[in-house]
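User: Here's a protein and a ligand (acetoacetyl-coenzyme A). What would the complex look like?
Assistant: Let me lay out the input and then the predicted complex.
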Amino acid sequence: MAALRVTVQKLLQARSAVSPLLAVPALSRACHHGHHFEYINVSKAGEKQNVGMIELNRPKALNALCDGLMGEVKTALEDFEADKEVGCIVLTGSGQKAFAAGADIKEMSIRKFQEVFGGNFLSNWSHLADTTKPVIAAVNGYALGGGCEIAMMCDIIYASEKARFGQPEIALGTIPGAGGTQRLTRAVGKSLAMEMVLTGLPITAQEAQQAGLVSKVFPPDQLVSEAIKAAEKIASHSKLVVAMAKEAVNASQEMTLREGVHFEKRLFHASFATNDRKEGMAAFVEKRKAEFTDS
Ligand code: CAA
C-alpha cells in the first residue's frame, strides 16, 4: 500500500512538473471528469445520475470563496454543461455551518486598486449566472457577502432552517461586488436590500423566504435530498425546453414587460420546432409518459 502511495505521489509530481494547472499537491483531492479538485467535491446524484453536485469544501474557512475555489467551480460547471446526462446542478456547502462566508477576506486584504480594477477582480464569478443548465443553491448555513451573491446567481434557492443571508461588506469598508446590490434588490425589494447592505446585518432563512429570496426552507438534514429531488424533476424534462424556460424567466430581470412578453412568445413559438414539444403534447393526448430526447 505504501509503495502504491509513493508511486501515485511520483506520478502526481511528474504531472505537476508538466503543467502548473495540473498541480496536485494532496492525494486527498477529489477527482471528477479527469479534473482534480482541492476546494470542492464534485459528483453526480439522482436515480438516473442526471444531477450534477458541487459541494464547496473549505470548512475550516467556512467555505470562503478564494480564487482557487471559484476557478474549480467554473471548471465543474463547464464539465456539467458539456455532460449530456446532466439536466440540473445543485450547489451546496460542506458541513452544517456555512454555504459560503463570502469572498476570502485574507486573500483580498492585500489587494490594491490597480490590481482589482486592472484585473477586473470577481469578473470570472459571473460564470455561475451564465450557466445554461438550471442551478439550485442548497444553502445550508451562512451565505454572507459573496456567498449570498453566488446563491443569488443560481436559479432557485432552497435553504436550511439554519441558513443566514447577509451582505456584511459595509463592515469591511467596502460594498458587495458580485451582484449583491442588484440581485438582492430585485429579489427582496429596495427597503430590505438597503437595510441589509447598509447595516450589514443578516436575515434568517424564514425572513429570506418571506421576502421571496428563498423558495423553500427545510430541516438541515433534508435540505440536500430535497434539492436533488427538485433537480431530478427538472432533469426529467426536455433539456432544450428547460433552457428556453430558464432564459425566458431570466429575461424578466433585464427587459421591460412588453419586451419580455414578446421574447417569451417567440421562445414559445420556437418550442414548436422541437421534437420534444411534439412528444410532450402527443404523450398527453395518448395518456402516456413523455419520452423526451432533448431534440
Ligand atoms: N474569508 C476568509 N476567511 C474566513 C471568512 C472569509 N470571508 N469567513 C470566515 N473565515 C475564517 C475565519 O477567519 C476563521 O479562520 P481561522 O480559524 O483561521 O481564524 C474561520 O473561517 C472560522 O471563522 P470564525 O472563527 O470567524 O467563525 P465564527 O463562527 O466566530 O463566525 C462568521 C462566523 C460570522 C461567518 C464570521 O466568520 C464572519 O463574519 N466571516 C466574514 C463574513 C464576511 O464579512 N463576508 C463578506 C466577505 S467580502 C465579500 O464577499 C465581497 C464580495 O462582495 C464578493
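Summary: The pocket of acetoacetyl-coenzyme A is lined by residues 61-62, 64, 101-106, 122, 142, 144-146, 149, 168-169, 172, 176-178, 180 (CB under 6 Å).
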